[in-house]
Amino acid sequence: MTTVALLGNPNTGKSTLFNELTDKYATVGNWTGVTVEKKLGTIKHSQVDVVDLPGVYSLNPITKDETVVTQYLLHNHPDLILNVTNANQLKRNLLLSIELLEFGTPVIIALNMIDDLKRSGHYYNFETLSENLGCGIRATNARSKEGLQQLREELVRSDSPTINQPLQLNYPFMINQAIRQASQALIADYGYPQKFARWLVIQFMNKNKVVRDYATHHQLTPLLNQQRYYDAQDFEDDIFQTRLAFIEDTLKAARQTLSTTTHVELTAKIDQWITHPLLGLPVFIGIFYLMFKLSFDWVGTPLSDTLDAFLSGPLSTGAAHWLTSIGAIPLLRSLIVNGLIAGVGGVLVFIPQIFVLFACISILEDSGYMARAALVTDRIMQLIGLNGKAFIPLIIGFGCNVTGIMAARTIEQPNERLITTLISPFMSCSARLPIYSLFVAAFFPHNQALIVLSIYFLGIIVALLMAKVYQILFKVKENTVFIVELPQYHIPRLDVIWHGTWDKGKGFIKKAGTIIFAGTVLIWLLSNLGPTGLVTSIDHSFSAQLGKLIQPLFAPIGIFSWQAISALFTGILAKEVITSSMMVLFHTGSQAGLIALIGQYFTPLSAYSLLVFILFYVPCFATIGTIKSETGSGKWALYSVVSSFIIAYALSFIIYQIGILFI
Amino acid sequence: MQLTFSKTNSSGYTITGFQGIDQATCQRLHSLGLQLGSVVRLVRQYPFHGPVIIEADNQQIGIRYAVFKRLTGGY
After folding, report:
1. Is residue A372 part of a domain?
2. Cα distance from B33 to chain A (closest Cα, Å)?
3. Residue A3 class from Cβ within 10 Å (0-12 exposed, 13-18 middle, 19+ buried)?
4. Are residues A55 and A148 in the same domain?
5. Cα gap A427→A424, rounded to integer Å
C-alpha cells in the first residue's frame, strides 16, 4: 500500500483534486479551512491511499487546523507528497514547496488552475522548474479534469522514477554551519535519518511551534541548547530571504511569455459590486436574505409540507392498517405508528429545508464568496472584538452549531476562537427550526416569517452582546490578526455543490436514524410506562410525573404543560427531538393535529416565551461534545451549558412577565 | 475619515517595513510572498478605517487598515 499526502496552500483546488483522484470524496470549499481534518481516500482500482490535509501557507502553523499538517509530517511517513499549487501564484506557493522538498520525501508539484496562468499570458518551462527544484512538475486543472488522468497514472505507478534528493538551498554560511552541526548531533545521538534531521533543524530555526514542542518533548538537546543563539541571530529572517530569492531566480529562469492573451477579468468585474466599500454590506445582506427565502419560503417549505402530508397521511394510516391486518399487538402498533413514524417522521420532514440551506452555503463556499463576506463584515465584527472570519462560523452555525464551531478553527487568535465557540450555540441552528415552524403555524399564522426572523435576530443580538462581554473579560486587544485571501471566483460546479450539501446534511439523516430514533423510543417508553408498569392513560406515566415535578420552575416563564417540559428535556439529545417528543407525548401523528392540540396549552405570549427558551436553553449533546473537544476542556463545555440555561431562563422570564402586564 | 477609495485603480505602494506588526501577521504576510520592497496595489479601502484590499503577484489579500498603514510607512 502506497500513501500519497496531498499538501498545498489554501485555495489551490486541493480538495477538488482529491475528489477527482479518489473514489471517496471530501468536502470542498473555496473558503480557507474547509478541510478541517485530514481525509482519506483511495485512487480508483489501485492500492494507493491519498491523504488530504488542510491547506497551509507554511509548515509553521498559526491556526489550529494548520497544526494538523506539521503533526502529520512529524509522525507519519508518506511515500510521496503531491504538492498542489496555484499556478497563477507560484511565487508564494513555492515557499511551502521548499519546506516540503527539504523534508526529503519524493515530491510531485501539480501546477493546478493552469488555465488561469495561461490566461494571464504566462507559462513556465517545466524542465527548468523540475531541474531547479528537484522534483516532478505536472500541469493540472482539477475543475475541468485536465491533466488528471496522467497524474493518476503516475501516482499509481509505484516504481515511478521520482527524484529522491532533498532540496539543499544555499543558506548563508553561518546557518549552513549550524544546520550541519545540529543535524550531525541528531543523527549520532538520536539515530534520526539524515534527511529528517536536517529538516528538523531548519524548521526549529524557523521557530516552527510544533517542531519546537516536538524537540522539547523528545529532549533534543542539540537543538534546545542552540535555541537562543538561533533566535538572537534572527536565522528565521535569513532563511526566508534565501528561499524567496531562490524562488524568484527559479521563476525568472523558467518564465515564458505567451503570444496571445484573451484576458477577461471576470473576478474583477464581479468584485466591482460584491466588495464595493459601500454596497458590499447590503449585497451581503441581500445574498443571505435570498438564501433564507429559498430555504424557508420558496423551495424548502413547500417540499417539506408535501413530505409531511405523505408521512402523516398515507404512510401512517397504511402502516396502521397493515399492522392491524397482520395481527400485531396494539402496543407494538402504537410504538411504530405513534412512536417511530410520528417521531422520526416529524423530524425527517425538515430535510428539504435543511438541504436547501446547506446547498446555498455550499454554493457560497465553492464560488469564493465566503472570503468576501469575511471582508465586508470585518469592520462590524471589530466592534465586538472579533474579526470578519468569525462571521463564517456563525453563519455556518445557522445550519448546525457543530460544523460552525469546527469552522472556527481558521481563526488565528485563541481568544477570538474561544469567543466564537462560546457564542456559536446562540446561532439558531436548523435543528431548532422544526419547533419554531410548529409554534408559529399554531399561534402566529399570519406573521410566520417575521416571528421566526425575530427569534434568529434575538440569537444574533445575544451572541454579539456576549461576545462584547467576553472581549472585555478576556481583555482581547483591538488589533488582531486579520488576513484574508480573496480567491478567483469560480462558477460553482453541480457535483461539488451536491457533495458539499450531502457532507453537511448526511449528519442530520444519520441523527434521524440514531439519536432521534433512540430518543423517540425512550419518550414512547416513558410515556407508556409508569410506576405500576404499563399505563393506559399517559397522565400516569413517568414522563407526566417528571414533567409535573419540575413544572413550578417553568411556570414563571409561562410553560404550564408537562408535555412541553418533558419534550424540552429530550431536546438536549438533539433539538429536533423536541418536535418528535411532542408528537409522541400529545399522541398525534400529524403536524396539523399537534397544532390544534398545543393551542389549548399555550397563549401566543407563552408560546413566544417557549421559543426564546428553546433558542438558548442548553446546547445539544453533539455541540457540548464539540465545545469540549475544540476548547480542550470540559470546563468550557459545562460553562456553556450553565450560562446558556441562565440566559434562556432570564430572557423568557422577562418576556413573559413583562408581556403578561400588557396582554 | 479619508475618502480615498475613489482613486483606487492605479495606486501602487511599496512595502517599507514590518515594524509594529505582530508576529503572526508578519509570518502570514511573509507566507503570502510579501517582503521589504514588494510593490502592492491598493484595490479597495473600506470606510471607517475598515479593511483594505491589496494586490500583489496576481493575488488579492484583505488586511486591516492599521497593518496596511504600517507596511507602507503611514505611521
Report:
1. yes
2. 5
3. middle
4. yes
5. 6
Residue A125 sits in the same domain as residue A216: no
In a domain, A490, yes or no: no
Please state, in angstroms and as integers, the Cα–Cα distance from residue A531 to each residue in A76, A145, A537, A587, B31, following that order: 57, 65, 13, 20, 67
Please indicate, yes or no, whether residues A146 and A240 belong to a single structural domain of this protein: no
Residues A146 and A180 in one domain: no
Q: Which domains does chain B have, with CATH numbers?
A: 4-71 (2.30.30.90)
ipTM of predicted complex = 0.85
Query: How far is A297 from A58, CA to CA, in rounded Å?
Result: 44
Is position A628 annotated in a ligand binding site? no
Q: Per-residue b/e over A397-420, b at no fewer than 16 CB within 10 Å?
A: bbbbbbbbbbbbbbbbbebbbbbb
- Between residues A173 and B57, the one the model is more confident about: A173
Residue A316 corresponds to which amino acid? S
- The pLDDT tens digits of the residues spanning A245-273 come to 999 999 999 998 876 655 557 788 888 88
The shortest CB-CB distance from A482 to any of B5, B31, B63 is to B63
pLDDT value at residue B5: 35
A641 is in an annotated binding site: no
The domain of A397 spans: 284-476+498-662
| Residue A273 falls inside a structural domain | no
Neighbours of B22 (CB within 10 A): 15
For cell 399505563, name the residue: A535
Parallel, antiparallel, or unpaired: how do β-strands A48-52 and A2-8 relate?
parallel
* Residue pLDDT, tens place only, A549-580: 989 999 999 999 988 998 898 888 778 888 88
Give the three cell numbers for residue A275: 466588495
List, as ranges, residues 408-427 from A with C-beta within 8 Å of B: 412-413
Mutation to test the B interface, candidates A369, A386, A479, most B Cβ within 10 Å:
A479
Residue A39 belongs to domain with CATH number: 3.40.50.300
Query: Given A88, A388, A481, which is nearest B24 (Cβ)?
Result: A481
Same domain, A512 and A549: yes
pLDDT, position A162 = 55
Average pLDDT of the residues of chain A? 86
Q: Does A33 reside within a domain?
A: yes
Contact B27 A58 (CB under 8 A): yes
Tell me if residue A286 falls in helix, strand or coil.
helix
A280–B45 C-beta distance less than 8 A: no
Could you tell me the pLDDT band of residue B9, with boundaries at 50, 70 and 90? very low
The C-alpha of B69 sits at a distance from chain A's nearest C-alpha, in angstroms, of 13
Assess contact for A612 and A426: CB atoms under 8 A.
Answer: no
Burial of A184-193, coded b for 16+ CB within 10 Å and e otherwise, reads: ebbbeeeebe
pLDDT of residue A262: 55
- In this structure, the answer to whether residues A72 and A207 fall within a common structural domain is no
A91, A277, A485: residue with CB nearest B44: A277
- A11 assigned to a ligand binding site: yes
pLDDT digit string, tens, across residues A463-504: 989 998 998 888 776 556 788 889 888 888 888 888 878 877
